[in-house]
Amino acid sequence: MARKILIVRFSSIGDIVLTSPVVRAVKRQLPGAEVHFLTKETYAPVLQANPRIDKVITIRKKVGEALPELRSHCYDFIIDLHNNLRSWQVILALGRPFSRFNKLNLRKWLLVRLKLRVMPDVHIVDRYLKTAARLKVSGDGEGLEFYIPEGDEVDTGRLPEQFRTGYVALVTGGRHKTKILPAEKMIEVCRLLRLPVVLLGGPEDRERAGIVAEALGSGVLNACGEFSLMQSASLVKQAVAVVSNDTGLMHIAAAFHKPVVSVWGNTVPELGMYPYLKAGEPHLVAEVRNLSCRPCSKIGFENCPKGHFRCMMDQNSREIADFVNRLSDATGQDNNKM
Fold first, then answer.
1. pLDDT at 169 over 60
2. Residue 336: is its pLDDT beyond 90?
3. Per the CB 3.0–4.6 Å rule, which of 114, 205, 250, 285 could disulfide with 173?
């Protein structure tokens, strides 16, 4: 008998992208299963083009907004990948069989506060998949998925001519400043790259990206705030390589199986949210190791608590650029940018 499954993850972009292997596993491994996804209205576009999801249900602020509709579906099982007060309200209100994601909050606290390396060497995606194990589904090793509506695909012919034959996407933003590579370090990296660079981010990133573009001239395009999330994802999809802070577009890059440089500031890959790639796909973790203050948070701060911001200021720009340049050499793409 076909089953109706509700997956719950309210936010944010990256976390929702990381649930895609669970959606795929349920849809593929439970014949005829109907998959619904509950999220915040803001993040619905991340899910709506996914053909494996039969229905996206949203809330603005309160779970009560969606309860009448949720009750009408009589779910066979709830996979709670958020595990917070709101998701618990859903489970209690529906009274259906469920499984909840283990957030490992104590272990995260020990890592951040006492610098004890007690986190399991398991990616958060595989922990998400474990949450669905009661349905007898498992991971398939195929990585993440992300779907762009056809109308949001960007024709690179719209870009200046020198970007049309290959570029590096550099993701400039992040939810917290201690996760963002500063403008001066971005300039260092861009000067060393042989391909032109498209700077991606939201309107809030445009000023910082403008500093980079002004310093480097026509070989760097400041696209921050010029494209929607889906259009930015399209530009990531078409890039030769992606350099990204620990943010949503980093996971979208992994979903498109792009070579990724993930740049880590106050957070660390040990928290389990590094790019989830298929075996053998190129990836560089750029981080300043052996800093006694790192990680200082599992999320981030407005400013470095120590005042020195060494986790970003001491990043090895040459290592980042060399990784990307090797990729451009391998694909025969070199526009002699600068």
1. yes
2. no
3. 205
Nearest in space to 170 (alpha carbons), one of 111, 133, 203, 212 = 212
Task: Give the residue from 176, 127, 186 showing the smallest Cα distance to 12.
Answer: 176
**pLDDT bucket at 338, cuts 50 / 70 / 90:** very low
SS3 of residue 65 by DSSP: helix
Mean local confidence (pLDDT), 39-59: 98
DSSP state of 62: -
The identity of residue 165, as a single letter, is T
Closest CA relative to residue 129, chosen from 101, 106, 103, 91: 101
Buried b (16+ CB within 10 A) or exposed e, 30-61: beebbbbbbbbeebebbbeebebbeebbbbee
Q: How far is CA 3 from CA 27, 102, 127, 129, in A?
A: 10, 24, 22, 18
Query: Which residues 6+ apart lie within 8 Å of 208 measured at CB?
Result: 172, 180, 183, 201, 224
Residue 144, CA atoms < 13 Å, CB-side half-sphere: 31
Q: What is the mean pLDDT of the chain?
A: 95
User: CA end-to-end span of the chain, whole Å?
Assistant: 62
**Rounded Cα–Cα distance for residues 146 and 46 (Å):** 8
> 259 with 327: CB under 8 angstroms?
yes
* pLDDT at residue 123 is higher than 90: yes
The answer to whether the beta carbons of residues 274 and 281 sit under 8 Å apart is no
Burial of residue 259, with CB atoms counted within 10 A of its CB: 0-12 exposed, 13-18 middle, 19 or more buried: buried
Q: Which residue has the tokens 């701060």?
A: 301
Closest listed residue to residue 168, CA positions, set 275, 261, 265 = 261
CA distance linking residue 128 with residue 99, whole number of Å: 10
Instruction: Check pLDDT > 60 for residue 337.
Output: no
